[in-house]
Structure formats: structure tokens, C-alpha cells
Amino acid sequence: MSSNLNQTLIKKFEQFEASLNGEASSSLHGIRKQGIKAFDQIGLPSAKHEEYKFTNLGKILEKKFEWISPHHTSETIDIDTLATFQIPNLDAHSIVFVNGVYSESLSDHDNAQVAITELQKAKETHKDIFDKHFGQHATYKEDAFAALNTAFITNGTFIKVDKNVVVDKPIAIYNLSDATANESVNYPRNLILAGISSQVSVIEIFGTIGDHNTLVNTVTEIAMEQNAIVDYYKIGNDSEQAYHVGMTQVHQANNSTFTANTIAFGGGMIRNNLQIKVDGEGCTANMNGLYLLDGKSHVDNHTVVDHIKPNSVSNELYKGILDGSSKGVFNGKVFVRREAQKTNAFQSNKNILLTDDAVINTKPQLEIWADDVKCSHGCTTGQLDLDALFYLQARGIDKDKAKAMLLYAFAIDVLGHVKIEALKEHLDHIIAKRFNQEF
Amino acid sequence: MLSIKNLQASIEDKQILRGINLEVKPGEVHAIMGPNGSGKSTLASVLAGREDYTVTGGEVDFLGKDLLDMDPEVRAREGIFLAFQYPIEIPGVSTTNFLKTAVNQVREYNGLEKLDAVSFLKIMKEKMKLVEIDQALLSRSLNEGFSGGEKKRNEIFQMAMLEPKLAILDETDSGLDIDALKIVANGVNQLKSKDNATIVVTHYQRLLDYIVPDYVHVLYKGRIVKSGTKELALELEEKGYDWIKEEVDAAV
């Protein structure tokens, strides 16, 4: 089954390579070739593949996409359409891609404090640091989708924050897929470099326009130097025609703090791979996630936090509410290497299933080789707390309203970690609307 | 106001209430006492409408209406208030927001206009004084991190906000030191009127020094086996429950 598509994709790479006109000898292309080589060896995961067995993207790519090039037509959208995806009241630097193509007119950022540019330009303007980090962090040789993204790199966002710079505004990266004319497949590739003692917030927002199927296969590499602070947000609120596989790979140096907030409100099949290498002492890695699913949405959050050095902390909280016949998957891997003594790693995944048809597959996976550590994990799956429900009813609140209050309360908990006020309000509003809450 | 006739109830096939008869009139305070396992909390829960319990017989009339036929929220809106023995914590739901929703749903049901945020806050500030509760506590998640005393005071605060016709205090004194007890009792006493009534469920006589009952009933093995005035409570404190148990068991 998949081997046909594997071959099709390899042929597409050959066509792509042929169209590159002289770029074929660049270092970027060298990395692309590594990508396709890795893909050739691994191939798309089958239904039996341990990491993808609940999220059979291989089958989706086979069945839902025609793989006829060109994949997309429009390279831009109008400003009103962009506005529907923007976060209200958010004062941020923004960079906008439509179907993988950078839109200068829709983007709004100045480079006074921080370099924000397209990947294509950055590989020249920031050559040394680009070559040093690009493709060096994401584990694309082990994952077929990251390998594919690497093979088909066209463009994406490059962000470089210099030493000691505290970036005044968050940076919002919009990746919009326009599938009005036909299916849209694109491979956004991002590289974010946070210098020593720098601070930056980055928000990745994905959205789709049109009724055809869309596939976004994205890789974001984040390399943090000592003492850096990065707050990363990934927001997805998509229709059931939207398919997404994204790898966010983070490399932390001493005393750095990385926080990821991954929020998903729906999608046909969404797979988020968040991988953090805690390669320093005194680091903090926070992973927060929320998935509110209904209909036939499918969201899979796989996380890996790898404690390589001692004296660091990781905290993970993922919460999900599943309605309709939605499917949720959670796999949280925590590795604590032998030298990583005094590691504190906490993980919690809490799920509420609202219907008999909703399904959650959750797997905490702690592999600990050091012997002086504090690690814990907790996983719950259940319905609403009936005692809490009765308490509210006993005070005069009708059952539906009481349920909605409790679901809202459950979800809102994760928002406590969102530091950007406008984003928090926006998410609060979506959640409140989902549960019919007006306060 | 409340008329309980031959009420029987069970939980998970275990019969707990075996025929309770009780009449409560406006302005009265009734104490329900009894040894552990006698069914005191069950009675309170059944009156409030907890679905874990199955009513297997009897009837309960509240202000001329069939109470057992009403959902818990309807009972609350009709004027029943249960002060929980173990008030649970509900993270993410603040006391203020939840109470505003509750108060307004009760008002709406009774044909009154909803309170806007400003009016609600004004009333809140007034009632807070009754149980000496801090506003900071109210904007936090419901009961989260509250001490035992704070939780019980929060129950009485909610009672003050909802102005029920019949308040059922389920072992409100359990886990309280004497100072907390006094504050809670004072709050209850301030809320008493000739138009409302209170049922105080308690194991110990101590609370009844502060919330003085008009009637004391002893519950044993699911039935009210003895009724009296507050003197009965003092007798129980002196002699314990054994003498009643012996009396009842001998008669069987």
C-alpha cells in the first residue's frame, strides 16, 4: 500500500530537484538530499508502526491526496481573509505564508530588534549561523514526515535573537493553506535562534481556506543558548479537511527556559511532535497542551523531553476534552540519561470523554537511567466529576449549565500558562463559546 | 413547610432510611442526631436530591409540592439549601462566578430580575461580613486550598446569598474548632427568620449550644426513634447513644 506512495514521493523529489536551477550544489540542497535519503530508507509508517499506530497518517496521505503537481495555485489572500485568522488585539511582529509562499504585503515586522526573515533569504544573509544550526537539530533521519519536510524545503521563517535582547513583541508566524481551487500541500520549515540571555515569544498559527484537503508538514527547529527564554505557542483550529504533521525540535543550553503551549481545537488528523533536548544544567522545560475535540477530529500529541545533563526540571500538563466521535492520542516520553542526576520531571495528562464514541489513547513513557531523580507521571481518563456536578445543581444551576461550567474550568486551567494577554483572551473566548459560557 | 411521610431510601441495594416521619414548620429549628450509620447524612442527601440514593417508599411535601419529583436544581430554586458536610473543591470555578450564576438562575426561576455584576458585588460584600469571610477567598477557585473552617463558612456564606426557605446543615460542625464553630453558628442565627426553617444534622450536642433547636430527633437504624426538646440533646451528651439503642432494640 504505502510503497507506491513512497515511490511517488521520491519521484516528486527528482522533479523538484530538476526544477532547482543551480541551487543543486548549495548546502541547503545537501540537506534536502539527506532528507530524501532518510525517507527512502524509512518510508511512510504503516499501521503497525509503534509511533504512528493510532494516527495512521500514511493511509491519509495515500487516500486523501492526489499528489498531482502543482499542488497549489494562489500565493496570497486578501487582507480581510487574513484578519479572520489573526488574533484580535495582538500587537505582534507577523510573518505570513500562503501555501508556503512568503507574502511581503501581508506580513508586518520590523527587524530593529530581531532578525525575522524568510528562510530563503536568511541562508545568504546569515550564512554562518544558518549553516551551523539548520538541519542539525530535528531528528529527521528517524521520522519519515520530518524527512519529507527536509527533502522538500522551500521556504519558512528564520528568527535570530541576539545576545541579551528581550524582544518587545511576540512574533506571530501565520501558515495559511488556500485550498479553494484544489488540494494544498506545503512544507513550512522554520529556524529560531535565541542568543545568550535573550527572550522571545513565538506563536505559530495554522489555518485553512477552501474546501479541498490540505496537508501541512512542518518542522521548526529552536536552538537556545545559555540563559535564553523562549515561549512557544502552536495554535490549530481546523476543519476536518485539514491534515497536519509538525515537528518542533528544541535544543536547550545551560539555564535556559523553554515553554511550549500547544492548543488544538480540531482538524482531520493533526500530529504534533514536540521534542526537547535538555542539554544543559539549570534548565526548565515546560510543555502545556490542550485539545478540545468534537465531530470526527483527530489530534495526536507526541512529546519527548530528553534530560541529558543534571539539575534540570521539566513540567508537562496536557488536558483534553473529547466530544462526538473524536480521537485523541497522547504519548509523553521522558528520558533521563545516566548523567542527569537531580532531574525533576513531572508529567500529567488528563482527559474527559463526553460521549461513548470519543476515544483517547494515552501512554506515559518514562525511561530513567539516573538514580537520583524525582519523576512522576499521572494519567486520568474519565467523565465529569459527579460530586462537583451535584454541588452546582444543589445550588440551583441546571445540569447543562453546570456541565459547561465544569468543562470550561477544566480547559481554562491550561490557559494559566499563556503569558500573552491578547492570545489568552482569544483562546478563552473560543473555549467559552465551545461550552456556551458567558461570564 | 416540610412534611416527610414514611420516607424510605437505599443506596446500592442497602436500605438506609426505613420510614422517616417529620414535620417542619416555618420559623422552627430541628436537630437530627444519631449514632454513626443511622442515616443522618442520607436523609440530608435525599432531601437535596442526590441521585446515588434511591427512594424506595414514602413522600416528601415541600410547600405543597412533591419534592421527590424535582431535580436537584429545582429543589434549590424552590428554596432548599444543603450545607455539605464535606464541601468539595472545584478548581477553575470561582466562588464569585458560580454564585452569581446560581443566584441568578434561582431569581429567574422565581420571576425576579437577574442581578448585574455591580448589584451582585454589593450584596456579596454585605453578606461576607456575616461569616467573616475574606473577598480574596471568594475570587479563588471554589474551596480550593480552603481550611475546614473556611469551607464551612463558605457554605453559610452561600446560604446567605441564596436566602433559602429551608436550610439543611449536614454536620456543619464536624472538623471545626470552637472559634470557627461560633462564627458559623452566628451566621446561621442571623439568617434565621419566622419565615424560614433549619434542619441541623449533627452527631454532637456542642453545636446546639449555639444554634438552639426547637425540636431534637434521634435517628437510629433509619428511623426517628425519639423526639424531644433541647433537653434531649443534653441527655444524649451525658449518656451517649447506647441507652436509646438498647431501648429500641429491646422493643423490636
Topology readout:
The complex is a heterodimer of chains A (439) and B (252).
Chain A: H1 2-18, H2 27-42, H3 57-64, H4 79-85, E1 93-98, E2 101-108, E3 115-118, H5 119-125, H6 127-133, H7 144-151, E4 157-161, E5 171-178, E6 184-186, E7 189-194, E8 199-209, E9 214-224, E10 229-236, E11 242-252, E12 257-264, E13 269-278, E14 284-293, E15 298-307, E16 313-322, E17 327-336, E18 344-353, E19 359-368, E20 374-382, H8 386-393, H9 399-415, H10 421-434
Parallel strand pairs in A: 1-5, 4-7, 5-8, 6-9, 7-9, 8-10, 9-11, 10-12, 11-13, 12-14, 13-15, 14-16, 15-17, 16-18, 17-19, 18-20
Antiparallel strand pairs in A: 1-2, 3-4
Helix pairs in contact in A: 2-7, 5-6, 8-9, 9-10
Chain B: E1 2-11, E2 14-24, E3 29-33, H1 40-48, E4 53-62, E5 65-66, H2 72-78, E6 80-83, E7 90-94, H3 95-109, H4 117-128, H5 135-139, E8 141-142, H6 148-162, E9 166-170, H7 178-191, E10 197-201, E11 215-220, E12 223-228, H8 230-239, H9 242-251
Parallel strand pairs in B: 3-10, 3-11, 6-9, 9-10
Antiparallel strand pairs in B: 1-2, 1-4, 4-5, 7-8, 11-12
Quick structural summary:
The complex is a heterodimer of chains A (439) and B (252). By secondary structure, chain A is of the alpha/beta class.
Largest interface, with counts of residues having CB < 8 Å to the other chain, equals: A-B, 23 and 30 residues
Briefly note the structural class of the backbone of chain A.
alpha/beta
- Provide the residue-averaged pLDDT of chain A: 92
Molecular shape of chain B: globular
Number of domains of chain B: 1
Strand adjacency order, main sheet of chain A? 2-1-5-8-10-12-14-16-18-20
Distance between the termini of chain B: 32 Å
Helix % of chain A is 10-25%
The helix/strand series of chain B, from N terminus to C terminus, equals EEEHEEHEEHHHEHEHEEEHH
